[in-house]
């Protein structure tokens, strides 16, 4: 299944690893911030009622 | 009715986002998985660059989005300055961290790719250098947002910085192109076809082009999804702030 | 306007900082370079234009936060905003005063420091021309940065972060002009570009500076 | 040269502090703004002076008629008293500073650097600046801070002269200057939580 990357295996794999890591980190961070902000807002709105 | 400016209302925008976010995020995931798997497992090696050509599926979409994110920030900054729609300013703020991540991905994959191709991690190739400068612009823009307490002042100042910065970014692009001529040439020749992705002189390139296209669509959708999500986060924060301010007064 | 320029110049003289510090900093950068890269004269000749330009740019950067911060702290800017003088004129005069107290001394001192770095004889003229054309742009762009960060507590560091990318085109064309001059190559392209950048920013950037200053005074 | 403020609401840090303030200041009138600390007197004066936008309502004044003086004097410690005044005189298109120097008894200090003055002397210099602006409507925020009794009297005289020559003054002060002044107590205008209380930028998020 794994394609033969030859002598460039490290190059290609590290590129994919770094990029995917960065994207996942960005998504995770955004989702966490979104959740936090939403909870804080719901908290304040609940108090208003 | 039906005007696009309706969505400039933060509450309306939040509701709309909640409806569209899931499908866009799904689309982004599907495209990215298909594109990357296709590119990584089912494309041949390039006759010159060998397996390293697979980096193209990350490098080119990230580089495109790094520029497009800045362009989007420029447009939303102008909308904020002219029409004072809060969503616009917050969307610009939300896009910056995504843009900087894309710039970093483009830079790192470029450096990793450059190592076997040019025999060095870093060459002051005009294109790489331009991205480094773009990275600095993003850093300054984000730092300015963080440094100012008052949200409207921050929106105004960062918008002006974004517009002025855009002019200087274009100037820098020309300056860098001119500056590198004297040092060494041809560093980007190898990648000329790769960057445009539509290089039809070589028939092989279609093999690379279709998965690349899917990846680009995936990155665009990912960007849209993240901007929507992050803008909504900023709106929630501002609403919380406004409600707390009102609470204190009561 | 003339009163403001006169006042800023007197203040720069009396406070002592303006003239002396920038030049001293420039001198130190130039003296330190041979220590860090070695005394070989061929190498120094080659890098002299670039080092002189970088030194001048850093010396300029050093005094940017003083352009507006002092007038902000003592309330002068508030009073200026209610005065009949438009803020566009105020920021232009401020940039001019900064250039006269920082840029001009750098232009004058640069040939002397060029001697220290083995700058070839034909390079001196173009070094002075490039700095004389480029330093006004540095002052005007710097005033924009100062106006952006004027109310902030950690303004100084942020100012450098914001300004340095904006300095890139000026630095590239300025240093390139000085380098080509020193190596006896054709200079017309960088000369025109540098002049274009300088006149462009002088004509347009004060409006942006006044705009952000108005926002900061709100 | 009449200053008209109509239904003015002012905001500080995005929250309205005073609402529905209205008054008219005619030539030879003085109006003293009173109210407890933190209620928004400074914000009100800054808004009237045009230094920050009004949240609601209008401020009508003839162009180039307002002179504003606040806690910070805009004085340079490395310039002499005369140089400081001459600078501001030039900015406002005036030449002569002798009247301002005499009015605040600064003639002995003319050539002293402003940095070497005492706090009270500095304050007098800051107020002398008002005279060189030649503007008819003065907006003064706590003008008597760090002045001794004699200096307060000097200041009161200067304001009195200004009023009798057809000028007007809007002051925020706790000290009775012995002027024929109307009092504006801003206490009743304190903004209350309500639909309009959150001002400007945050309003859109409610």
UniProtKB/TrEMBL annotation, chain A:
GO terms under biological process: cytochrome complex assembly; heme transport
Alphabetical UniProt keywords: Cell inner membrane, Cell membrane, Cytochrome c-type biogenesis, Membrane, Transmembrane, Transmembrane helix, Transport
Keyword Transmembrane: yes
Residue ranges crossing the lipid bilayer per the database entry: 12-31
Localization per Swiss-Prot or TrEMBL: Cell inner membrane
Cellular component, GO, one term: plasma membrane
Chief subcellular location: membrane
Keyword Glycosyltransferase among UniProt keywords: no
Domain of life where this protein originates: Bacteria
Membrane protein topology class: Single-pass membrane protein
Entry function: Required for the export of heme to the periplasm for the biogenesis of c-type cytochromes.
Family classification: Belongs to the CcmD/CycX/HelD family.
Record protein name field: Heme exporter protein D
Protein's organism: Shimia marina
Taxonomic lineage of the native organism: Bacteria, Pseudomonadati, Pseudomonadota, Alphaproteobacteria, Rhodobacterales
From TrEMBL, chain B:
Domain Cytochrome c assembly protein: residue ranges: 13-184
GO MF annotation list: heme binding; heme transmembrane transporter activity
Assigned keywords, A-Z: Cell inner membrane, Cell membrane, Cytochrome c-type biogenesis, Membrane, Transmembrane, Transmembrane helix, Transport
Signal peptide: none
Domain of life: Bacteria
GO CC field: plasma membrane
Bilayer disposition of the protein: Multi-pass membrane protein
Segments traversing the membrane: 20-43, 55-82, 94-114, 126-145, 157-176, 208-229
Pfam families cross-referenced by the UniProt entry: Cytochrom_C_asm
UniProt-listed GO biological process terms: cytochrome complex assembly
Location of the protein in the cell: Cell inner membrane; Membrane
Family note: Belongs to the CcmC/CycZ/HelC family.
Role according to the record: Required for the export of heme to the periplasm for the biogenesis of c-type cytochromes.
Listed name of the protein: Heme exporter protein C
Source lineage: Bacteria, Pseudomonadati, Pseudomonadota, Alphaproteobacteria, Rhodobacterales
Gene name tied to this protein: ccmC
From TrEMBL, chain C:
Topology in the lipid bilayer: Multi-pass membrane protein
Cellular component annotations (GO), alphabetically ordered: plasma membrane
Predominant location category: membrane
Keywords of this entry: Cell inner membrane, Cell membrane, Cytochrome c-type biogenesis, Membrane, Transmembrane, Transmembrane helix, Transport
GO MF term set: heme transmembrane transporter activity
Compartments, as annotated in UniProt: Cell inner membrane
GO biological process: cytochrome c biosynthetic process; cytochrome complex assembly
TM region(s), chain numbering: 12-35, 47-64, 96-117, 123-150, 157-178, 190-213
NCBIfam families: ccmB
Function summary: Required for the export of heme to the periplasm for the biogenesis of c-type cytochromes.
Family: Belongs to the CcmB/CycW/HelB family.
Record protein name field: Heme exporter protein B
Automatic annotation (TrEMBL), chain D:
GO MF entries: ATP binding; ATP hydrolysis activity; transmembrane transporter activity
EC number(s) on file: 3.6.3.41
SUPFAM superfamilies (UniProt xref): P-loop containing nucleoside triphosphate hydrolases
Domain of life: Bacteria
GO biological process, one term: cytochrome complex assembly
UniProt entry tagged with the keyword Transport: yes
Keyword Hydrolase appears in the UniProt entry: yes
Keywords from the UniProt entry: ATP-binding, Cytochrome c-type biogenesis, Hydrolase, Membrane, Nucleotide-binding, Translocase, Transport
Boundaries of every ABC transporter domain copy: 3-205
UniProt-listed NCBIfam families: ccmA (TIGR01189)
PANTHER family with a match to the protein in the record: ABC TRANSPORTER I FAMILY MEMBER 1
Designated name of the protein: Cytochrome c biogenesis ATP-binding export protein CcmA
Lineage, highest ranks first: Bacteria, Pseudomonadati, Pseudomonadota, Alphaproteobacteria, Rhodobacterales
Gene name for this UniProt entry: ccmA
């Amino acid at each position: 299944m794994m394609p033969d990357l030859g002598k460039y295996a490290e190059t290609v794999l590290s590129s994919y690893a770094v990029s995917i890591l960065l994207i996942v980190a960005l998504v995770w961070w955004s989702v966490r911030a979104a959740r936090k902000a939403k909870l804080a807002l719901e908290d304040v709105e609940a108090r208003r009622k | 009715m039906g005007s696009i400016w309706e969505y400039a209302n933060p509450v309306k925008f939040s509701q709309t986002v909640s409806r569209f976010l899931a499908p866009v995020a799904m689309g982004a995931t599907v495209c990215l998985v298909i594109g990357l798997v296709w590119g990584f497992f089912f494309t041949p090696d390039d006759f010159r660059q060998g397996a390293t050509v697979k980096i193209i599926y990350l490098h080119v979409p990230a580089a495109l989005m790094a520029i497009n994110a800045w362009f989007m920030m420029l447009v939303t900054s102008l909308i904020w300055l002219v029409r004072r729609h809060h969503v616009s300013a917050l969307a610009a703020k939300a896009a910056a961290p995504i843009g900087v991540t894309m710039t970093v991905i483009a830079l790192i994959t470029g450096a990793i790719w450059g190592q076997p191709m040019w025999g060095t991690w870093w060459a002051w190739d005009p294109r790489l250098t331009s991205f480094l400068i773009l990275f600095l612009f993003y850093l300054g823009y984000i730092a300015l947002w963080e440094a100012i307490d008052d949200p409207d002042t921050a929106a105004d100042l960062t918008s002006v910085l974004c517009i002025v910065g855009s002019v200087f970014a274009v100037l820098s692009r020309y300056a860098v192109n001119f500056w590198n001529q004297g040092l060494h040439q041809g560093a980007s020749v190898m990648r000329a076809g790769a960057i445009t992705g539509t290089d039809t002189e070589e028939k092989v390139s279609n093999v690379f082009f279709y998965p690349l296209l899917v990846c680009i669509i995936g990155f665009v959708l990912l960007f849209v999804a993240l901007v929507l999500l992050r803008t909504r986060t900023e709106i929630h924060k501002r609403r919380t702030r406004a409600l707390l301010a009102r609470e204190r007064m009561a | 306007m003339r009163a403001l320029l006169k006042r800023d110049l007197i203040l720069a003289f009396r406070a002592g900082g303006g003239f002396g510090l920038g030049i001293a900093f420039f001198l130190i950068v130039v003296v330190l370079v041979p220590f860090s890269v070695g005394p070989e004269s061929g190498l120094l000749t080659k890098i002299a234009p670039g080092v002189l330009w970088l030194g001048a740019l850093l010396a300029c950067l050093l005094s940017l936060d003083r352009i507006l911060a002092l007038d902000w702290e003592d309330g002068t800017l508030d009073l200026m905003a209610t005065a009949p003088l438009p803020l566009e004129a105020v920021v232009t005069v401020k940039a001019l005063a900064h250039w006269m107290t920082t840029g001009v001394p750098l232009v004058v001192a640069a040939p002397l420091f060029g001697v220290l770095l083995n700058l070839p004889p034909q390079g001196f003229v173009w070094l002075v021309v490039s700095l004389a054309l480029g330093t006004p742009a540095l002052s005007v762009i710097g005033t924009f940065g100062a106006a952006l960060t004027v109310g902030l507590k950690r303004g100084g560091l942020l100012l450098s972060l914001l300004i340095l990318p904006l300095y890139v085109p000026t630095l590239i064309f300025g240093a390139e002009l000085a380098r080509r001059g020193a190596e006896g190559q054709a200079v017309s392209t960088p000369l025109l570009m540098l002049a274009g950048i300088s006149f462009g920013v002088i004509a347009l950037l004060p409006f942006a500076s006044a705009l952000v200053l108005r926002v900061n005074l709100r | 040269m009449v200053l008209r403020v109509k239904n003015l609401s002012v905001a500080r840090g995005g929250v309205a502090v005073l609402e529905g303030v209205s008054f008219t200041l005619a030539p030879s009138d003085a109006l003293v703004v009173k109210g407890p600390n933190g209620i928004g007197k400074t914000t009100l004066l800054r808004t009237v002076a045009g230094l920050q936008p009004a949240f609601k309502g209008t401020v009508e004044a003839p162009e180039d008629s307002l002179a504003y003086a606040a806690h910070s004097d805009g004085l340079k410690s490395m310039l002499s008293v005369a140089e400081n005044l001459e600078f501001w005189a030039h900015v406002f298109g005036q030449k002569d500073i002798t009247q301002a120097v005499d009015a605040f008894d600064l003639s002995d200090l003319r050539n002293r650097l402003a940095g070497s003055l005492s706090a009270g002397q500095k304050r007098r210099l800051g107020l002398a600046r008002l005279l060189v602006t030649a503007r008819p409507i003065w907006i003064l925020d706590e003008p008597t801070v760090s002045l001794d009794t004699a200096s307060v009297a000097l200041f009161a005289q200067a304001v009195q002269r200004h009023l009798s020559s057809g000028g007007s003054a809007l002051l925020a002060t706790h000290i009775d200057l012995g002027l024929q002044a109307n009092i504006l107590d801003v206490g009743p205008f304190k903004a209350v939580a309500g639909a309009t209380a959150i001002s400007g930028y945050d309003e859109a998020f409610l």
